[in-house]
Each structure stands twice: as C-alpha cells, then as structure tokens.
Design brief:
Blueprint lengths: L2 E5 L2 E8 L2 E4 L3 E2 L7 H19 L7 H25 L2 H22 L3 E3 L2 E8 L2 E8 L2 E4 L16 E6 L6 H15 L4 E6 L3 E6 L2 E6 L3 H10 L5 E4 L15 E3 H13 L2
Parallel strand pairs: 9-10, 10-13, 13-14
Antiparallel strand pairs: 1-2, 2-3, 2-4, 5-8, 6-7, 8-9, 11-12
Helix pairs in contact: 1-2, 2-3, 2-6
C-alpha cells in the first residue's frame, strides 16, 4: 500500500494502480492477520477447533474464541480487499456480500449442520387474482438430517439465519421478515443475524476517518416493539454492543459458532 494511517484501531490504506487511486476497506488491527505465515499457523488451529466441534466438544478458551473471529474475519476481509483493488466499487460490494454468504454457509456445512436456502411463497389477492411475494431466507439451519422447511412453512425446530455484511440500510428487513414469516406460518420463527461489521470510511475536513453505521436506537426499538431475534452476531463487534442493553442481544460470531448454535439446535 502506498499510504496507510490508523484511526481508532482500524487501518486505512490506499494505493495507486495503473494511474487510478484505489482505497481498500478499513480493517481492524486486532482481528486482521497480515502475515501469511501467521495466518497459516492460526488457520491450522482453526481447523483443529472445527474438528473438536464435530466431535461434540464445547469447551473453548477465550483465546480460541478470538482466534475463530480473527481467522474468519481475515478470510472475508481479504476477499473484500482484493475486490476493492481489482473491480469497480459497486461491483465489489455485491461480490463481497455474496462471498460472505458463501463463507458462512461453508462453515456451517463443514460442521455437518443441515442447511438450505428457502424462499417462502406468500400469496396475496389482487384484482387480477392471487399473486405471490417471495420472502427469501439467506439460509435455514436444522437439527435434522435435511431441512424440513419449504416454500409454505418454517419448521419450528429450525432457525432462519440472516446474513448481511453490514446492517446499514438492511436492519429493518431482518425484523420485518421475521414478523412476516410468523404471520404467514402461524407460529413463532426463530431468527438470528450474522454480519461482518458496521463501519465505513468517511472524509472529515480532508482527513480519512472511520464512522459507525450501526443504528443502535433503531436496533433497540425494533427489538422491544417489533420482534426479538435469537441473537445478532458480528465478526467485528460494534463498540456499542459492549454496553447494556445491547450486550444482551449482540455477540461475537465465535459465540455463535462455538456455543450458541448448538444450544439453538438442541434446546
């Protein structure tokens, strides 16, 4: 990188490529692994943790929790940085979102958790007859050998997982879809959210800084008055999530992977 600066724990980098200035997404210093050798070593430890999970081990140290967040964050963020440098920004955002969904689905599949993308087909009446609204789920996870939810129902033992790289402009949909699904299927639907982070670059009087895109008051209003999720999980946890009452609803991704998902699937 030609230029680097640090701001509140994040590294902000840019480079000139073929006469065009390219800025990459900010990455968090205590999560992103910049050394290939260190990453390879920690990825080996990460694989050991995955194998222990498959052997039904559920006790892990705080260092192991951090290692899981760091390795998964580095994989996702490195893909995003590569796309920032190689493709146009709008295209990069779309690709990054798709790769994030694929990464989380792959992790769940490797843990031998049954998963499936389900699209609910919700009918509504019009002057031209019945039409259908497609309510797409990012992924449904199941305690069964195969997912039982389908286009007309959500099994009560299964969990809808919403995968968003960020909640910016997307938070309302997560809560509204939960309400919509419950009204349609006629019973409670368990929903969790997983995001990479809620930060973005901003320019302030010529200086590049970092700002949060997590709308904390909206999250709590939706949680209290609209619907309560089973939990929301981040690879890069917003600082607000460490405070009450947010810390009762928002957690690190490693907590989901190492602990909570197993409790959800085996209540």
């Amino acid at each position: 990188m030609d230029e680097e600066t640090e701001f509140i724990g994040y590294q902000i980098c840019s480079s000139n490529i073929a006469g065009t200035r390219k800025s990459i997404r900010p990455f968090r210093n205590d999560l992103f692994i910049r050394s290939v050798n260190i990453f390879n070593d920690r990825y080996g430890s990460f694989e050991e943790i995955i194998n222990r999970l498959k052997n039904e081990e559920r006790e892990f140290t705080q260092d192991e929790y951090h290692l899981v967040d760091s390795v998964v964050y580095t994989i996702q963020q490195a893909m995003g940085i590569g796309l920032d440098l190689m493709v146009q920004s709008n295209s990069a955002r779309k690709h990054v979102g798709n790769r994030f969904e694929e990464l989380i689905r792959t992790l769940l599949s490797n843990l031998e958790i049954s998963i499936k993308k389900v699209v609910l087909s919700i009918p509504y009446e019009t002057d031209e007859g019945n039409k259908y609204y497609r309510c797409e789920t990012d992924v449904i996870i199941s305690p069964f050998e195969s997912v039982k939810s389908d286009a007309t129902s959500i099994n009560q033992n299964e969990i809808v997982v919403s995968l968003k790289t960020t909640t910016k402009d997307r938070m309302p949909k997560i809560f509204i879809d939960k309400v919509l699904m419950e009204r349609f299927v006629g019973h409670p639907v368990r929903v969790v959210g997983i995001s990479q982070n809620d930060i973005q670059r901003k320019e302030d009087t010529g200086e590049i800084k970092i700002s949060s895109t997590f709308v904390s008051n909206l999250f709590m209003v939706y949680t209290r008055f609209l619907a309560q999720l089973e939990g929301y999980y981040y690879l890069d946890l917003p600082s607000k999530a460490l405070e009450r009452p947010f810390n009762q609803h928002i957690f690190t991704f490693s907590k989901f992977l190492l602990k909570d998902v197993w409790k959800m699937l085996n209540p």
